[in-house]
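REQUEST FORM: STRUCTURE PREDICTION
Request ID: SP-0412
Submitted by: Lab K.M.
Chain count: 1
Length (residues): 91
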Amino acid sequence: MKKSIIHIIFDLGRGGAETMLVKVIRELTEYKNIVVTLADTNHFEAELQCDQLICLNVQSPFDVPKAVFKLKQIIKKEKPAFVHSHLIWPQ
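STATUS: Completed
RESULT:
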């Protein structure tokens, strides 16, 4: 069974961190790659080669506590070897 990595990023709009994440995931084939976004923008579509894409649908600061709860559930369920985050909101 492959170990998991949970990658957390605000969204997958085309930018530097997002492009780097998509390229890095492509190289991490020995892991189960789970990408968690806060917003549902995805400009990469087929370029993103992850095992699972989860959007927490954070639309305002009031949604953050619910998103934190969902993220904790994902981490508890997947038991990842690593949690990798990008940019200020996901941290």
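NOTES: The radius of gyration is 12 Å.
Reviewed by: T.R.
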